[in-house]
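Below sits the subject:
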Amino acid sequence: MIFLLVFAVCFFSCAAGAICGIGGGVIIKPALDAIGIMDVSTISFLSGCTVLAMTAYSVVRSKLSGSSRIDQSTGVPLALGAAAGGILGKNLFQIIRAMSPNAGRVGAVQAACLLAVTLGTLCYTLRKDRIATRRVTRTPVCVLIGLTLGALSAFLGIGGGPINLVALFFFFSMDTKTAAENSLYIILFSQAASLAATLATRTVPAFSPGMLVLTVGGGIAGGICGRSVNRRLSGPAVDRLFVGLMVLMIAINMYNIHQFLA
């Protein structure tokens, strides 16, 4: 029953993530925290692996089909910055984990940070039509933005999700579907670097190999389904789904903070 529940969480999270460009980790991480079947380090690691697999499929599939919306002039610097940020964020997580032997407190910090990010994202999304955006083209600035996004996503164990979309909306004036695809591209690099850092420092948490197969398999299957649905939905429909997911994530993170501190 637990294995089926984990697969379902990863499948539907990554399906929604592929549609909206949020990667799925922003749903997987807090949802599995709420279920409480693994410690926060294991959930962060499995969530990162799942998101990495899903985004790798989505990005490669878009490239091969010739339908990619990624602008290499900004996408590559963002991705390189995100890769460096992924390593930074993973190291920051390990430092905070070492400072607090209480896993619940580490989980509460992650949940509180994710709650703040989600609330900010929701507020921006609801008012984005009234907010003047930018068109950043300078490579150093793109790298810095990517670095920040990668560090936040790796620390929170969410892949990138809503943080990426807001940054792409505001700094690059991208429409919803273009931002979604570029977000997955950034997530791919940040999560790959984060995984490499975890392997290099030998800080891989204990987990069941079967659980890894389930989460990654569910993520890839969800990515395939979500990519198909994305092509059929309009931009406004994707926006509505995104807002709904943010409301759900706010509720789950508030619950998780209460549970971790109880």
Remarks:
- The first helix runs from residue 2 to 20.
- Residues 34 and 103 are 14 Å apart (CA to CA).
- The chain has a mean pLDDT of 85.
- The radius of gyration is 17 Å.
